[in-house]
Amino acid sequence: MTHRRFKEIHDYDWFPDAWRRGMTDFLSCFATWFFQYDPVFPLIAGMMQKSGLCKLRDLCSGGSGYLLSLLDYLYKNDIAVSGVELTDKYPNLDAFERIAGRSGGAVGYLASSVDALNPPFDGPELRLMFSAMHHFSPDELETIINRARKDNCAIGLFDYSCRDPFRAIPLFILLIPHIFIMMPFTGPFSWGKMFWTYIIPAIPLALLTDSIISRWNGYSPEELKAIIDKFPDSAYEWECGSKLNFLRTGKVVYLTGCPRR
Q1: Is residue 38 part of a domain?
Q2: Which residue from 33, 90, 178, 181 has the least number of CB within 10 angstroms?
Q3: Which secondary-structure segment (H or E) carries 155?
Q4: Number of domains, the chain
């Protein structure tokens, strides 16, 4: 974990919100259409069964569309869910409202900014984070995990951004064509999103830049294991590893921590 890390441009406060919403809408759509996180849904179901927790809080939710796929999986496998709450430092409220409406009341959200390093707490829950581990330094990930431990919450961190050039290079080549094809179908339709994609391509260029940075910042299972080795806690069951995703085009790196009942 000694390589230098870089901050993605859409993480800066000055970054235009319209561009950020377009980016998170596309990334959510990409993760859903190409089943990026389906391989780890059984891990989440297993955590809920082991811990007895049925409330989910999603950190760094972004466009959050993949959560509907997760809920479908949990319902089909008879896993009880008492509710899901979306949160983000820069909440995409249009996307949150759309997901909440399509969930039939299962999904709610916080409209205020929520820092993943200090999430709200109103009882034990399963905290999830998709596509966001690479935004945080090892010390920050340690803080996120330690906060979950102190709150007696389960935690699952999942990310398909990893330093794998053989899979990353084809993605970079195909990313811009995918953006131009998919953008009209991502999230709530917006003429502003169309303008910043097709007239002035600020969103595609920002997505390409941040995709390169996110891949560089991505963690390996070995790096995640070095973090959880700092928590020799017999009350928790830890696991980290990776799963090949749809069509084996990439890997989902994961870290999970589950309190033992």
Answers
A1: yes
A2: 181
A3: strand 154-159
A4: 1
Q: Which domain holds residue 248?
A: 9-164+214-259
Task: Please report where in the chains the tokens 């007895």 appear, as a residue.
Answer: 52
pTM of the predicted model, to two decimals? 0.93
In a domain, 114, yes or no: yes
- CATH number reported for the structural domain that contains residue 252 in this entry: 3.40.50.150
Residue showing tokens 């984070």: 129
Residues of the chain with pLDDT under 70: 1-3, 233, 247
Task: Dig out the tokens for 71 from the structure.
Answer: 């809920």
CA distance 70 to 146: 25
Amino acid at 178: H
Whether residue 173 lies inside any domain: the answer is no
Give CA 252 to chain center in angstroms: 11
Is 187 contained in some domain?
no
- C-alpha distances out from residue 136 to 25, 31, 43, 132, 162, Å: 21, 20, 22, 8, 13
Classify residue 140 by its DSSP letter.
H
pLDDT (0 to 100) of residue 64: 85
